Amino acid sequence: MSGRFVLALALGATVLAPLVAPTYHVLLMLPFMAYAVALLGLNLLFGYTGLVSFGHALFLGVGAYTGAFLTSVFNVRSMETILAAAAALGALVAAPVGALCVRYVKIYFGMLTLAFGMVFYTFVLKFYRLTGGDEGMPFLRPALVGRSLEDLPKTDYLVGPYYYYSLAVLVLATLVMWRIVRSPFGLCLKTIRDNPTKAETLGIGVARYRWCAFVISAVYAAVGGALLGPPTGNVDPTLAYWTQSGNIVFMTLLGGFASFFGPVLGAFVFIYLQDWVMSVVPFWRLIFGAILAAIVIVAPGGLAGFWVRRPPVEASSP
Amino acid sequence: MTAHVVNVVLSGVFHASILFLVSAGLQVVFGVQKIFNLACGSFYALGAYVGVSAVGWYLEAGGPPALFIAPLAVAGLAVGAVGVVVERGLLRFVYDRDETFQLLLTFAIVLMMEDAIRLTWGTSPRSTSGLYLTYGRVGVLGTTVPVYNLIVIGASLAIALLIGGLLTRTAFGRIIRASADNREMAEALGVDMRRLYATVFALGTALGTLGGALVIPATVAMSEMGIELIVEAFAVVVIGGLGSMRGALVGALVVGVLRSIAISVYPELEMLLIYLIVIAVLVLRPRGLFGGPRA
To answer: Is A115 within 8 Å of B235 when comparing Cβ atoms?
Structure first.
């Protein structure tokens, strides 16, 4: 089966899902699509640039809180405005944070991003007069493409207009990201990942490229974060906690960071598997932890790794 | 005024002595195995729950309450054996991998341990009711402090000295330091890395579980306590410098006391202040205050 055929099949199924699938499963598609957008961005940093952020929940939080503030404080209801504002704020926050973080690689990069993520988390948690603290903030129903849709029952709104809206954002985000990774810019990122010294010798401004990748990935995460708000109608600080950053890296690895669509697949499997496991036993973390450990040890290529060529698993010692 | 300051500082130092134990465990593992162990917070939580259970059994068996600290410490240390299982069962497969995968594997352990604790002890908080003040309180510079706090501070200092002695004055300590410096060379000189790694990881785990056990009379055991503590321990090792024992001691004091001051002056600032310091340290001096020359 060619990749293109599978992709067309997946897209077709996603378009038709609200017509045939049970409402419950259609509703689960909403967080999936939101995470998929965020993960496309995260993987530009992880898979393509070789930097693993342990603080990307920060940008999910920035996006989600932007939407919550705009709808419930400023009464701005247009989803387009919300997404644009989330993207802009994500970039605005990411610019200085990224400038500091990309000076380091590997474990130090991970630690610095984790620290920034926790700064944001403690901020929204502690300044409850502004953010509602651990109870969070309401994310009121946004208007889509200028139509208010206030009179629709919540479920009809979510499985109807909002579903297709999210899908459109995901498709658009995918197309843009596809262009980015295929562009000379994307190729430079891969060069930097594989050999930063050589990249520098070839005249690629390593730090600047890493910074650009960081900001783009933050914009994607902020947009994904904003999309997460309407289905629950509420935004709370757990979205920005460090374990959430760990979870999205987990999703990326589950799907396969070495492949373009791997993270999207990872988000899909994570959300549905989590839902299914939770319906059987209440201890989903135990099972997911075991899955993550198994992936790290025996299948670092993730699910996509079984399908595409399998990356060599190095021998380990001692 | 003095009394208030002393009170704030002493409660900070108490917290710091617990933080030091967990961070020391993180440091010794990072120093030798080069793995940043996110699960050290989970070991701390495990130690806390085991401590609660051990003290419970001890009292049921009719042990004198005044000696509760003995079963507590023994249980805390003994459960460190879990470290050997984790190291031999999971970590040893990833020593040659990218740091990212090592970090993610420890994250997997965090997820598993959190639910393993919930499965074993349930979701409601556990505590050793009423034992905290068994030893009474004592007046210090115009304020009163639970004697238990002073015991823990003393024990933590003693452990710091013991570790320092172990690392600098014994053959085993020399082997640890040599392996931290140059694994291949140490291996070529005949050090059994498999055993060393298992031992070091068990030592790191035992420090974490002991920290959890010792904190428990003063607080309650909750399943989230691990993932909350790891970010504090993380702050400690960044401020002190990754891999350095002296750094863990100083970092723990900085984080513990500052947090205590922030809580009493402006509670909203609490951890925010700590993370801002962490960022400042990472940006200005990424190796931390006591970090070695290797990044």
So the answer is: yes
